[in-house]
Write a structure and sequence with these properties.
4 copies of one chain form a homotetramer. In chain A, strand 2 (44-48), helix 2 and strand 3 (68-70) form a beta-alpha-beta unit. With 175 residues, the first copy, chain A, is α/β, with parallel strands linked by helices. Chain A has one domain (6-159): Rossmann fold (3-Layer(aba) Sandwich), CATH 3.40.50. Helix content of chain A is 35%, strand content 19%. The longest helix of chain A is centred in the first third of the chain and has 16 residues, at 24-39. At the B-C interface, helix 4 and helix 5 of B face strand 6 and helix 6 of C. Chains A, B, C, D: It comes from Solirubrobacter phytolaccae. Chains A, B, C, D: Residues 10-148 form the Isochorismatase-like domain. Chains A, B, C, D: InterPro entries: Isochorismatase-like_dom, Isochorismatase-like_sf, Isochorismatase_domain.
Chain lengths: 175, 175, 175, 175
Amino acid sequence: MPLTNHEDCVLVVIDVQAGFGGDADTLARAHWLTTLARALHVPIIVTEEEPERHGPTRTGFVEPGTPVFRKPTFGLAGTPEILSAVTDTSRTTAVLVGFETDVCVYQSAVGLLDAGLRVLVVEDAVGSPGEMHARGLTRLRDAGVTLTHCKALAYEWVRTVEGASVLPRPAPFAL
Amino acid sequence: MPLTNHEDCVLVVIDVQAGFGGDADTLARAHWLTTLARALHVPIIVTEEEPERHGPTRTGFVEPGTPVFRKPTFGLAGTPEILSAVTDTSRTTAVLVGFETDVCVYQSAVGLLDAGLRVLVVEDAVGSPGEMHARGLTRLRDAGVTLTHCKALAYEWVRTVEGASVLPRPAPFAL
Amino acid sequence: MPLTNHEDCVLVVIDVQAGFGGDADTLARAHWLTTLARALHVPIIVTEEEPERHGPTRTGFVEPGTPVFRKPTFGLAGTPEILSAVTDTSRTTAVLVGFETDVCVYQSAVGLLDAGLRVLVVEDAVGSPGEMHARGLTRLRDAGVTLTHCKALAYEWVRTVEGASVLPRPAPFAL
Amino acid sequence: MPLTNHEDCVLVVIDVQAGFGGDADTLARAHWLTTLARALHVPIIVTEEEPERHGPTRTGFVEPGTPVFRKPTFGLAGTPEILSAVTDTSRTTAVLVGFETDVCVYQSAVGLLDAGLRVLVVEDAVGSPGEMHARGLTRLRDAGVTLTHCKALAYEWVRTVEGASVLPRPAPFAL
């Protein structure tokens, strides 16, 4: 498993809506990584589940031009237009942040693996209530998903001391 | 490893008897999943160990028509009529709940793997005293069994927001 | 990985000497399993490291006819006469108990794997000071060793409710 | 995975500089292992990141003749002269100590795996702030790196009771 290149990645922001909660730290990290993705021209795709019930995507994740999709299936690959949006980027690695680790993130990750992509789940930028988060992470690893965390992925994306100048500051952890 | 389809599953309820204890939460989850299996027409098979000593299967797991088998071997595959009952369903995935994680559930799971089935153990619907539960789960994974939990499996079975209306409410965890 | 048959096993008792400590529970479990092995005619081989410094093997592990070997190498396979004693039993599965998890047990396990045996380490019947025990267990799994625990192995060895009558009682855990 | 021979190893000391912190125990263990490597004639290579900012390598790791390299990339394999220095030793196993577990150690380890070496990371002689250490270790294992710890590696290097006389005493843990 080689290091991850940002030129190979597409970032998928899954159901970052008030109805799915998420603690402040998780949300701050997901937002920080989204900001870095934008700076590195990593394409971003956003999904929402029943926004009339769970609310719109939280502030800061969607900018003009960011595609936002309604997701009536728990796994994004069950909704053909979302899967197409991901594969149309021609990126080989999907990076997932959002909610919930053991349901929509899990089912989306497995669907993307089945579609032939490499899948990274950012463990400190996804969440699920209580013990469901840890259970979801274990099952993601068992299913063949690569776990990473914001800091590690960011330093893999920039790769050099000089390149690290692009990292958004301050960060929600020690850079 | 693709997502689990309920049409492929058979639920095996192992030794859910007073003599094997089980905390209230584990029992509630096992019962909830059994109720969902019934709603989705997933076939159910029940085993018992020495019912004259350990008591009958607890209330709510057996309904008219549910096959109940005496299991003189710790692993169900050691008793030919139980293994036949499982394979006769023609379901390719066995989902296990019950007691005890590291003995009867473990030996049954390994026997079903040897018989060519995919085996899922529902980690929050199986139990064993003290540290034996966690040890059993680790060994199940090492043996090639897939671990899942009630909430994750339920959402895989229903797959869509619309389909989730079949989930029994209230559930013994946040849906 | 099928269930373990007692007819395939040889039990290796590694350095169960006062000089290597071991808490009372670990020692009780190692002794209980040794007693069961004897009842099931599983051959037993005992090793000792510098007995003049660390003391003889603790009481209860050696009976008339039990072979005891001095082990000048940390791994038993580094001492040809010990490796021969194991392979001469023609048993395909070596079951290891004793001390220390991350040094002599680890190096012995890897050497036996290299010699073509299946190797089981009984996690609650081996020990090492402080965090070294857990580290050793993790590395054993990573090296291809199967971890098990006394209770689970015992029930695999006896396999049936009827056969369980041979289990020594009382046991140092709930049977 | 056979036991590790010291004749096959090269020790790489990564960014052991004041700017990267490190608790006293981790530093003592890294230093102890470096001393043992020197006694066993295991070649040692040292890297530094921006020494004008993070300080020079800490006392005790560099002796006359020890090659020290400036590392402008987080992974050492991204700097050709460092990768050449490692491969020029003709040693097949790289042993890594230093900072930070999830960034420079991780990226260096993956780069060395890609270059065809076997890679061992010494888990109690590497560090990263807070939860980043544990996350880094998990990802190293997932990437195909072998984790070990100072005590276990030292006893593998010396292999016999007699050979253990070379171990530096006192050690920062129970020998």
